[in-house]
Amino acid sequence: MIVLGFESSCDETGVALVDSSGSRVPRLLSHALYSQIDMHQAYGGVVPELASRDHIRRVLPLTHEVMKEAGIALAQVDVVAYTRGPGLAGALLVGAGVACSMAAALGKPAMGVHHLEGHLLSPFLSADPPEFPFVALLVSGGHTQLMRVDRVGSYEILGETIDDAAGEAFDKSAKLMGLPYPGGPHLSKLAQQGDAAAFKLPRPLLHSGNLDFSFAGLKTAVLTQAKKLGDELENRKADLAASTQAAIVDVLVKKSMSAMTQTGLKRLVVAGGVGANSLLRKQLNDECRKRGIRVHYPELHLCTDNGAMIALAAGMRLQAGVEIANTGYAFDVRPRWPLAMSAM
Fold it and tell me: Cis before residue 130, ω within 30 degrees of 0?
């Protein structure tokens, strides 16, 4: 079964084809991605209206590119999947509208997919795919969650952010330091030149006794430290970046290990944009090795938003026989949509 997937939740337009035939994990046939980073850089962040307009410009050329690369005609597509939420409403509507229109023209079913489910399942496209059940650390944009995953469609939230997510802490702290958009990758790169012990920054909720996260206080501490440094900030920026990254990673790693202990599971999946962070991967690898835990990541090029993860999630749901509401070719989007409710 050939699944065509569209991702348009924010500032990246992704299109992909997967083959979900048989009982094996769906196989990626081709994918294409266009990032809007250069366009939004001038504004210091994503401008929703510009994002939506750019998705309109890019989605069909990317579709043609993907079909050509895979050597598959549109008539061979069995299911058209799209990101239904969460995300920017206008951006989501572009992908949903194109997907449902295409499905109607082909006389094939359309399937709305949860964005975070796509990230959650994306390691199944890696060279070392996980097996159920596992604990998942989802660190994508405005989302930081720990959950138990027993099978496709069965997600139990163990802990989540109560304010800023890890990705937001990276981006907002980078902006306070005067780093360009998108801030997170720039902060991580700069941190490699700094001393992570230079500044004592808080690790919010580290000893809370639960698995929830909070990074707003860390952002405030970075702001306070930057103001204290004043004119010295430029000379100490690498140290502040390294200290900030260390604080975020420390919380993510220790909470993840607590989740493994509480559940008794021996398999951890890390997904989402922050999952590409090299320090996070190193520390998780080290801690998991000590505890005899297998840890799995998406391939680096699939950590960001992409169409492959949407097509994959749809394909895995189809394989697992997970029921999805049939709305015909009418569609809506869910800018706010808890993952635990994604099967509804």
Answer: no
The number of beta carbons lying within 10 Å of the beta carbon of residue 264 is: 7
As given in the structure block, the two tokens for residue 316 are 């895995």
Q: What mean pLDDT is predicted for residues 114-125?
A: 97
What is the rounded CA–CA span in Å between residue 238 and residue 174? Answer: 11
Q: Is the separation of the CB atoms in 145 and 309 below 8 Å? A: no
Dump pLDDT digits (tens) for 75-91: 999 999 999 999 999 99
Distance separating alpha carbons of residues 137 and 139, to the nearest angstrom: 6
Structural contact between residues 85 and 337, judged by C-beta atoms closer than 8 angstroms = yes
Residue 274 C-alpha from the chain's centroid = 8
When the pLDDT of each residue in the chain is averaged and rounded to a whole number, the result is 95
What distances in angstroms separate CA 206 from CA 116, 247, 263, 329, one per listed residue?
Answer: 24, 10, 18, 46
Instruction: Tell me how far apart the alpha carbons of residues 74 and 106 are, in angstroms, rounded to a whole number.
Output: 8
| Residues β-bridged to residue 137 | 146, 270
User: Looking at residues 263-283, what average pLDDT do you find?
Assistant: 97
Q: What is the pLDDT of residue 341?
A: 57
Output the furthest CA–CA distance in the chain (Å, rounded): 64
